[in-house]
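sry for the spam today, last one i promise. struct tokens for design, 437 residues
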């Protein structure tokens, strides 16, 4: 193994014979390939990072062509248009953030003071805060404004190492504004050069004009909004907030069955504030994921394991909402694959999967290796992109991170900083370029 050169990443222009848009990333002290069987990883496989020492990756265009030790890769591919020297550093796949609400207008910065003063969510809502504040601002915003806000946020995600992001609608709560949010997300994704997986979350809350009439709002979603979203092909999933005061499991079932008939698989905001049968519903309708799960029942978790539903844990929300943390170890022991997301939203403004991984280790009971699996492979499958991203293997997208750390354990260890020194998205260096001169 080469001696470590921990101080900088060096990228140099290759010779003329190098393939255009080719990239070599060499001498990673730990290359976390996460190679393994197709599908989300559970049980023992959930902590096997497939580490190569002095590892290297060669990519052409957007895709990985070869992975191995630096000696092997430099023999087969001696030069490239761009070379990154990761001596002494960790290389891993770009993070996949499996759950965000990154498109919205307005600010709820004021609510931090109210939270600090001990106000409850209901008291904050009574002061004009909470989700309906965001709904008002988002309805008033133009599509271009939402796209611009989304772009700024997506660029912040990339800088912190996230290369694929799920983004939900759910602050329009009427057909034209839900469609507006989804178009803005797609626009922001194109401009940011990030892969965004859009999810329709019209059933995020009951809008004020339907107060006390959640069934009537659900009828509207089923008869009008969901078909319009499906027709526009503007979402990959349909999600529902199953919780007391929002939507019941029976209402969620109606919505997700209709969504399935229109070709949209389900996701469920499940058992966040109380056990309302969200986990069991996700299993029953074969949802791709059930998210939150702070209060999931044993029966719900067992049903998820049998149905192959992924558990997406969102510890930054527990932090911001002063709630307990989901028991990740209990889910893993039951054989449920665990994924992670930031749940970036106006009440919990967190773009950092690095922070989420540290929280998952300290509060959800995940080992650092399990948290990294949850933030890459399992998150990729939770958003339907497992065939393309989440591992460093031949044929996958060249979405790569270089961490300024000697071992992957530092991802769980270091809280609230930024270890990501370089980001490669679809073969292009997006961060770390300043170090190439
Ligand atoms: Fe959420």
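last one done:
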């Amino acid at each position: 193994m080469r001696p470590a050169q921990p101080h900088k990443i060096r990228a140099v222009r290759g010779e003329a014979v190098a393939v255009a848009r080719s990239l070599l990333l060499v001498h990673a002290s730990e290359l976390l390939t996460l190679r393994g069987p197709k599908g989300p990883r559970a049980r023992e496989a959930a902590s096997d990072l497939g580490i190569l020492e002095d590892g290297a990756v060669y990519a052409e265009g957007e895709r990985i062509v070869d992975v191995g030790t630096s000696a092997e890769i430099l023999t087969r591919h001696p030069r490239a248009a761009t070379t990154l020297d990761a001596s002494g550093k960790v290389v891993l796949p770009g993070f996949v953030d499996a759950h965000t609400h990154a498109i919205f207008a307005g600010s709820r910065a004021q609510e931090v003071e109210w939270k600090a003063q001990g106000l409850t969510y209901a008291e904050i809502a009574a002061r004009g805060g909470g989700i309906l504040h965001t709904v008002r601002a988002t309805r008033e915003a133009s599509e271009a404004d939402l796209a611009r806000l989304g772009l700024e946020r997506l660029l912040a995600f990339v800088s912190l190492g996230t290369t694929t992001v799920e983004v939900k609608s759910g602050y329009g709560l009427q057909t034209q504004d839900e469609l507006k949010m989804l178009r803005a997300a797609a626009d922001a994704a194109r401009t940011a050069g990030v892969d965004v997986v859009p999810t329709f979350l019209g059933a995020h809350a009951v809008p004020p004009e339907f107060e006390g009439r959640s069934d009537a709002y659900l009828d509207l979603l089923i008869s009008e909004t969901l078909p319009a979203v499906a027709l526009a092909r503007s979402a990959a999933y349909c999600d529902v907030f199953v919780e007391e005061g929002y939507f019941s499991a029976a209402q969620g079932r109606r919505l997700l069955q209709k969504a399935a008939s229109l070709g949209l698989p389900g996701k469920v905001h499940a058992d966040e504030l109380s056990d309302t049968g969200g986990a069991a519903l996700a299993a029953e309708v074969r949802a791709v994921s059930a998210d939150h799960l702070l209060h999931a029942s044993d029966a719900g978790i067992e049903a998820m394991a049998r149905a192959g539903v992924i558990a997406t844990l969102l510890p930054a929300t527990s932090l911001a909402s002063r709630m307990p943390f989901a028991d990740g170890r209990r889910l893993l022991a039951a054989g449920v694959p665990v994924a992670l997301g930031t749940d970036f939203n106006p009440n919990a403004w967190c773009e950092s999967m690095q922070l989420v991984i540290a929280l998952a280790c300290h509060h959800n009971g995940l080992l650092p290796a399990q948290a990294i699996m949850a933030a890459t492979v399992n998150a990729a499958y939770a958003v339907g992109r497992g065939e393309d991203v989440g591992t460093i293997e031949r044929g996958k997208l060249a979405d790569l991170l270089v961490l300024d750390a000697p071992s992957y354990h530092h991802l769980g260890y270091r809280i609230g900083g930024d270890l990501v020194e370089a980001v490669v998205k679809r073969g292009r260096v997006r961060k770390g370029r300043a170090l190439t001169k």
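The pocket of fe (iii) ion is lined by residues 99, 101, 269, 343 (CB under 6 Å). ok im logging off now
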